[in-house]
Amino acid sequence: MADDFDDFVHELQDQIFEETKAAYGEVAFQRWLKPLYMGRIDLADGYGRVTGSCGDTVEIFLRFEKGKVKQASFQTDGCGSSTVCGSFAAELALGKTPDELAEISGETILEILGGLPEEDRHCAFLAADALQESLENYMAHQSGKKKNADA
C-alpha cells in the first residue's frame, strides 16, 4: 500500500514539474527548483523593499566594493515567480556599477527568462523595482558620505 502511495506522489510531482516547465520554460523552472542568492546581507550598502499590488514583497540587498556590486541577494514572501525574478535580479546586479544597475528593468529579467505567463510578468517588474530602490538607497548613503567628507 505504501508503494502505491509513493508511486502516486512521484507521478503527481512529475506531472507538476512537466506542467511548470511547459508554462514557465526551462530557465525559470531550474531557478525555481534551486533559487540562487537568497537570503539577507547584514550591513548591506544598499537595501530595497517593494510590495506589489499582488501582495508579494521582494527585498534586494547589495554590497559594493570598489564601485561595483560585490555581493547581492534577495528575499521574498511571494510566489515562485517572485522567487525566480528576485534571484535573477540579484544575479544581474553582480559586478555592475551604479550606472549599469540603473539599466536593469523588468524587461531585462523577462528577456533572460524567455518571458513568463501574463499573470506573472509583474514579478519581474517587482524584482527590478526592488533592485532600483536598493540602488537609490546606496546612492543616498554615498551622497551623505560625500557631504560629510566635505564638512
Offer a concise description of the structure:
It contains five helices and three strands; from the N terminus they run αβββαααα.
Structure overview:
This protein is an alpha+beta fold. It has one domain: Alpha-Beta Complex (Sufe protein. Chain: A), CATH 3.90.1010. Helix content is 58%, strand content 16%. It contains 5 helices and 3 strands. It has helices at 2-33, 80-93, 98-101, 106-113, 122-150, and strands at 46-51, 57-65, 68-76. Strands 1-2-3 form a 3-stranded antiparallel sheet. Helix 4 (106-113) crosses helix 5 (122-150). The model has no long low-confidence stretch (mean pLDDT 93).
Task: Give the arrangement of secondary structure elements.
Blueprint: H1 2-33, E1 46-51, E2 57-65, E3 68-76, H2 80-93, H3 98-101, H4 106-113, H5 122-150
Antiparallel strand pairs: 1-2, 2-3
Helix pairs in contact: 1-2, 2-5, 4-5
Spatial strand sequence of the major β-sheet: 1-2-3
Question: What is the arithmetic mean of pLDDT?
Answer: 93
Helix content: 55-70%
Distance between the ends: 77 Å
How would you classify the helix and strand content by structural class?
Answer: alpha+beta
Main sheet attributes: strand count, strand direction, barrel closure: 3 strands, antiparallel
Low-pLDDT segments = none
The CATH class is Alpha Beta
CATH architecture call: Alpha-Beta Complex
Give the total of beta strands: 3
Order of helices and strands: HEEEHHHH
Which overall shape is indicated by the principal axes computed on the Cα atoms? elongated
- Rg, Å, rounded: 18 Å
CATH topology: Sufe protein. Chain: A
Enumerate how many helices there are, as a single number: 5
Domain count = 1
Quote the beta fraction: 15-25%
